[in-house]
Each structure stands twice: as structure tokens, then as C-alpha cells.
Model the fold of this input.
Amino acid sequence: MKRKIILFFFFLIISPSLALAEDEWWGKDWTNKDTAREVVYSALHIADWGQTRYIAKNPQKFYERNPLLGKHPSVGKVDTYFFGGLVAHAAISYILPPKYRWVWQYVGIGMEGGAVAHNASIGIKFEF
Done:
């Protein structure tokens, strides 16, 4: 877990210097569309969070497929992972140049939407 946190902060600090040209800066040209995409991503991420908490509370019925969490994570581990992911996604969206930001956001929306739909299709409920 420490290694993941260190890598996260490394990329958070280093990636802006690698990704931004001289005339670009964090959050440059942030639009209402960027905000809308981030809200959609966040809503799906929170739905996935609730479903994953349900999985953690029902290990006899379900198991988690995310290798970072393991098959039967604790609720605390789920909360830490999803809170960190929510903050990290927003931060990365903010620091990416506009020409890449929308791709990052749509990929996140697609991944979260797919996970939520799959979980719902096999009977996993949303529970906090």
C-alpha cells in the first residue's frame, strides 16, 4: 500500500512537468463540459464504491475482481481505495491539458459504467 501511495504522489508531482507545454497550466481552459464529465465519472465511481462495499460485506456470495483490492477486501480497504481514486481522478483531470483531458474522463466513465452495469446485472446492490 505504501508503494502505491508513493507512486501516486510521484506521478501527481512529476506528471505536470512532463505533460504541460510552456503555455499550458493546470486547469487551463476548464469548461462546463469538463465539469459535467467529472460529475458523471464521480457519480459512477460512487455507485461502484457502494457496490464494492456490498461485496465486502457479503463475501459468502460475491468476490471482488479488482486485483488491487483482492477477492475479499475489508470495508476499510474499499473506502480508502475509492476515496483515493475519486480524488486522484479529479486531480489528474484538472492537470491534464484540454486536448487530453476529455479522453481521460471518457475512459474513466466507460470503465466505471461497465463495472456498475456488470455488478448490477449479477445482483450486487448499492450499499453504504
